[in-house]
What we know:
Elements (H helix, E strand, L loop, with lengths): L3 H25 L6 H23 L19 H24 L3 H26 L11 H24 L8 H23 L3 H11 L2 H20 L8 H24 L5
Amino acid sequence: MHDFALVIFTIFSQIAIGALVTLWLLETTGRKISASSGFFISSAVAGIAIVGVLASLFHLGHPFEAYRAIRNLGESWLSREVTVYVLFILFSLAYCFYWKADHPAKRKTVGALATLFGVGTIFSSAMIYTIPAIPAWDNGSTTLSFFLTSVLLGPVLVAVVLQWRKEQMFNCSRITLATTSLSAVFLGVYLTFLFSGLEEAEQTGVQIVNSGMFWIRVALLGVVLAMLFPAIKENKSNRTVYYSLLFFLLTISELLGRILFYSTAVQL
Length: 268
């Protein structure tokens, strides 16, 4: 699929942003995280972000002319996305450096700026697709789904790494339960919107429910919810396998959802 490069870019960029914001919030709110673990996570964030932008180049007919995308900031959401994402990557690299150098004050400031540009990236990405030509996209659902991906996957990735490195436990079950539940509700509301909208939106809805990927995604969300409900009351000392499985299932679910997003869009 030609749009698979965009699937990888949007998912990877949103994972990276969600993980960086999670790490920054944990330290800002007083969680004790070792410099080595902070450096490891922030390095992973920068790496994922860079892989995402490299993947996006495969969507371009002339990858080496990608720099042209920043020349129309005043009118183009694509130009804004490219600009703020490059700034996010730069500040995420600086954030990584200050974890390595163990400068808490500087990394909190740099982390705040990276967070700002990360949020701007997700919003700009969503606005690129909020266009009247495709009724299924021309609403707030695109923005909500992009932010949901970031909030779903970022905290779980941080939890996996902290558990793997035997840091103090970060129990993200509550936020993941809330976000997964919201995702499940969102799917139902979104389909209702599609089937009650324009003919092209209804055609998108038909394609979605007729796709095996959609039902696999529904099943994955059901499994995740079944795992999360009992976990929010437990305080196990080692949840490495548990969080790793959560991250894997949610990542597959979001990848399937993003593939459907691109492949089922019907234009006016």
